[in-house]
Amino acid sequence: MFLESAQYYDVIYSFKDYQAEVQQLVAIINEHHLSEVKSLLDVACGTGKHIQYLKDHYEVEGLDLSQELLDFARQCNPGISYYHADMVEFDLGRAFEVVTCLFSSIGYVKTHENLSRALTCMARHLLPGGLLIIEPWFTPDTWNPGTVHAHFIDEPDLKIARVNTSFTEGRLSCFDFHYLIGTPEGTKHFVERHELGLFTTEETSAVLVDLGLKVTFDAEGLTGRGLLIGRKPV
Ligand SMILES: C[S@@+](CC[C@H](N)C(=O)[O-])C[C@H]1O[C@@H](n2cnc3c(N)ncnc32)[C@H](O)[C@@H]1O
After folding, report:
1. N or C: which end of the chain has fewer CB within 10 A?
2. CB of 64 shorter than 6 A to ligand 1
3. This model's pTM is above 0.85
4. Tell me: the pLDDT tens digits for 135-169?
5. Are residues 92 and 158 in the same domain?
């Protein structure tokens, strides 16, 4: 998934304004949570770019499946606890006032069964009254197969071209990221496949409701991809 590209993750996603997203997230948390929030777990935290700003507001911990991305998260935010774990089956032995899963990471669980398992794990890590905040991936209706995408980085000592064509396999959205990367040491090419499950908003909401959470959906969210907010009863 993000293996060879891990060292370029932050430069590739430098267009994302993590600080502004966190400001918005904090406002949403304040709006929905009934009392003061102290602890937050960021599931699929990647290189910890949200955590870099969330840690100014909460006692934050992070979890991700990629050891490579976690290594960068640890460098970026020393002193934070990070867990190398699969969101589909994890047990940290403690609960938080807020659990987040941002930037569409939930799509990587691929199947409805895994969606249910992952959301169950996340909900189990919520304190009473706690919030589960999911930034979803595309839905079957909003995904556009057969579209071509390119992203370029043009720095003095680093050139990146990342090109892909989107396609669908059943309920999976798929793309092969072709990376062409130039540095003073040389130029290399590699391909990384990404496969994300296409879940409707109703399917994800239904899982949260079955888990006993009260669900609201913000169609715009932090980045235009929407935001599902589930609150555990007090
Ligand atoms: C698009 S990145 C988002 C990373 C980070 N949240 C951000 O906003 O930059 C998707 C993340 O999901 C993680 N991931 C994918 N499948 C996972 C799983 N089963 N359990 C935990 N993390 C997973 C990847 O390693 C990657 O860090």
Report:
1. C
2. yes
3. yes
4. 999 999 999 999 999 999 999 999 999 999 999 99
5. no
